[in-house]
Amino acid sequence: MGFWSSLGGVISTVSNWAKEAVKPIANVVKKVGSWMKDVGQITEAHLEGKNIIMDEDFSRRSIPLKRKNNNDLIWDEEDQLVAERQSILIKIEDQNSKILAIDRTTKENQNQTKLQLEVIELIIASQTIGRFAANIQLHEANLRIHHQSIQNSVGMLDSINRQRVGIKALFSQVNKIILSLDSAGINRHGATLIKDIDVDPRPGAISISNAYAAFDETVSLLYNEAEDFIHLTDRQIERALKVKAMAANVPSKQRRIEDWIDRSVIPSLRHANKSTHNLLLSLNEIPQIGNREQIQSIGSYRGNIEEQDD
Question: 76 by DSSP, 3-state: which?
Fold first, then answer.
C-alpha cells in the first residue's frame, strides 16, 4: 500500500476520532469550570480562620487582691503567735494560688499559641491549591488547543489530498488529449505533455502523529494533576481535623474554631474532592486513536512520494 493510500486511512481514522472526542472534551472543560468555583470556595473558607484566631487576645484570669485585716482588737501574746502563724499560712496559700494561676495562664497561652500556629499552617497549606488550579486550567486549555490543531491538520490533509487527486486526474486527461493530437498529427500549437510537476506535499510537513502525541500527553498531565489534588485535599482534611481537636484546649476559641472547620473548611474540601473525581471520570471518557502505529509511520515517513504512489 502506497503512502497516499495509507494517508487516506489515517485521515479517516483521525477525523472520526476528532469528532468523537468533541463531546468528552467539552465535558472536561465544563467540569474544570465547575471545579474552579469549588477551589475558590476552599480559599475563602480557609481565610476565615485568620479572623477567628486573631480577632481577640487570650483572656487572662486576674488574681484577687488580698484583703487587708483591719481588726483592731487587743490580743494577748499567745493569740499574737497564733495570728502570726495563721498569717504565714495564709501568705503561703496565697503564693501557691498565684503560682497555680500563673501556671494555668502559661499553659493556656501556650495552647493558644499552638492553635494559632496550626491555623496559620492550615491557611498556608491551602495556598498550594492555587498552584493546582493554575496548572489544571493550563492543561485544560492546552487540551482544547491540541484537539483543534489535530482537527485543522486532518482538514488540511484531506483537502490537499482531494486537490492532489483532482490535479493528477486533470494532468492525466490533458496528457491523453495531447498524445491523441500528436498521433493524429493535428497538434498545431505544439502542446507538450505535462510532466516534472510535483503536486504532492512533503510527508512530515504536517504531523498528525506529533499533534496527537502532544494531546495524549496533555490528557496524562491533567489526569496526574487531578490525582495529586485529591491527595492534597485528603491531607488538608486531616490538618483541619487536627486543628479542631486542638481547639478543645483553648475554650475561648473552641466553639468558633469547630464551627469554622465543620461549616466551611471540610465541606469545601470534600466538595472539591468530589468534583475532581468527576473530572477524572470525564478524562477517562476521552477516546483514544486505535491504530497509533499507522499514524506514527505516516508522521515519520520521509521517502519519495512519486515512487511510493499507487
Answer: coil
